[in-house]
Structures are given as C-alpha cells and as structure tokens.
Amino acid sequence: MSEPKEVQPRWEGLVFVCRKCMKRAGAEELRSTLKEELGRGVRVVRGSCLKLCPKGRVTVVVGSGEGMRCLLVDPEEDADSLVRAVSRALGRPSE
Questions:
Q1: Would you tell me how many other CB atoms lie within 10 Å of the CB of residue 17?
Q2: What does pTM read for this prediction?
Q3: What is the CB neighbour count within 10 angstroms for residue 35?
Q4: Per residue in 22-58, pLDDT tens?
Q5: Is 49 left (phi over 0), alpha (psi -120 to 50) or beta?
Q6: What is the DSSP string of 67-79?
Q7: Are strands 13-18 and 42-47 parallel, antiparallel or unpaired?
Q8: How distant, in Å, are the alpha carbons of 10, 33, 46, 55, 83 from that of 28?
C-alpha cells in the first residue's frame, strides 16, 4: 500500500465556493468575479454543498500557504491509506 504523494501546487491559494449557496442566493456570477479579481495565482472552484446553508449568503472556504495541502492519490489504492493521509494533512492524529 503506497502513501499519497504531496506536491506543491502552482497556485498560492484555493477558494472553494458552494454551488448550491450561489444558486440559492442568486449569486451565480460570484465565482467568476472572484476569479477575475483575485488573479491567476488563486484557484477558485465551485463545489457541492458544505451543509452550512446560510440564508441569503454564500459559503466560501479559503486555504493558502501552510494551511493548504495538495495530495496526489491513486484511485486504485486502499481507501484507508487515503483517509490516514488526509487526517494527517488536517493535523488530526492518525489511528
């Protein structure tokens, strides 16, 4: 069983925007506005619900620098090794 490989991303930050929140708040243009204003060094991605569901607002998660880890995983590997690697990346104790 191999461990996921950690790599240094080419971008300085990651912004995750909830697709469901954007739709509910009528803010579908928010992702493109962020991409345009933040520039090429920041990845802005739209994703599924984070179960925070603020009324009239949009959930946005931001990661950068040491607080961000980028792992390359083999989808054929055992899920347990991936869970352990992600837990370590999040600073949780490994079991």
A1: 21
A2: 0.75
A3: 16
A4: 999 999 999 999 999 998 889 999 999 989 988 889 9
A5: beta
A6: G--EEE--TTS-H
A7: parallel
A8: 26, 10, 10, 15, 32
